[in-house]
């Protein structure tokens, strides 16, 4: 097993290194990088082989499903997650991005991996030296940061897996945020993706039920786009245009920082500086005179509009990529609270849903909100889950067991964030791990990114309101229903069909009105109980 992993590592490394040198804009720099490839490959091979051996040895002779087997598997998961975390930090770059992907796939990958990565990957990112920042400016802009800008702070405000952000001031006095890519990432990414593939493929070869090759495929496709900051800038402008065109009723509540195109390149992105609170800074948000529940509702509205109506979705909405401030020039207040404006950052990772997928996904969420068992199955099958795994797909989307998904109770999808809820979900995830792996293999990659997006949003809502709120599901149900009705209108030709759609719309409005009444009643009851 060790020999097989090492041989694969050397063969893959030679090919990846050759490809990196051949396609690099700076072959000499890439050749220097590739000199460090052998130790990286040895680390990869050793980690993959150690993880595989740990699972085989730890579970040897134990009956699957027994307490001893579950305990041994938990311990093996934890040790392996720590090994993978250490590998990600030592190799950096794309490996950090892999760790962040895993951290955002709660209940899709084993809980031990998610919690280990979540505790570290968003906080311990690499920091480039100022000398390295100057090298990027020299190659891309032909000048130093001090020449390009009137002022440039050499100490970064924040650092992420692919870049870090510096405060600066333009020559006309505008304060800006300058995102600078870590040096040589474009070159090393080719090698890193290939070696990440080695680990995943090796583990899949030894454990056929461990099939996360889709994750490598996704990183292989998305990494070049995320590394092109001009592409990110274009995505940000398209996002704004979509809200103005398709969602004008909330367009003023969504803001994207202005891009300074003449001060940007494929590895440097200069944007308007934002003075706002991070979306999960509950204390700071309240100090601004904004209710956290209003922020939660706005986030739900914004992403529901993107997913069900725009079909162009920001797929990395973790807390660091969203900020909140009071809606500018707004004098309206609700019971003394100010209206929020959501600021979206980091537009590198977007996915487009084709028309059929978007409408099927909207139909599925509409069915989930209204506990429509027949429609849940029908649209799950359309999206690729199959008749045998439609219930599991619904459970992964909602984080609720099937009996709760089809429960007609108005709050059947609500998670209160309690330890009981969490324990139940962890039990299901562990019990159905092979079936979850098979489901992920079947689903289109764009839907897998929607799962990741759902998990990011769920985490943000949990921080804001202590779980998932019924109000957020009413919002999802309304916007998904509007998208489905609009699709029916577009395909309707006869007067009778149009009349039927009009009647369906009236019935839906009545249904949502009753839901709002129930919601108000539940909130009043909760208030009186305090």
UniProtKB/TrEMBL annotation:
Q: Which InterPro entries match?
A: ABC1_dom (IPR004147), ADCK1_dom (IPR045307), Kinase-like_dom_sf (IPR011009), Mito_struct-func_regulator (IPR051130)
Q: Which UniProt keywords apply?
A: Signal
Q: Which Pfam families match?
A: ABC1
What family does the database annotate?
Answer: Belongs to the protein kinase superfamily. ADCK protein kinase family.
List the taxonomic lineage.
Eukaryota, Viridiplantae, Streptophyta, Embryophyta, Tracheophyta
The record lists the organism as Oryza punctata
Cited SUPFAM superfamilies: Protein kinase-like (PK-like)
Q: Which residues form the signal peptide?
A: 1-21
**What name goes with this protein?**
ABC1 atypical kinase-like domain-containing protein
This protein's GO CC annotations:
mitochondrial inner membrane
What top-level branch of life does the organism fall under?
Eukaryota
Q: Which residues form the ABC1 atypical kinase-like domain?
A: 121-379
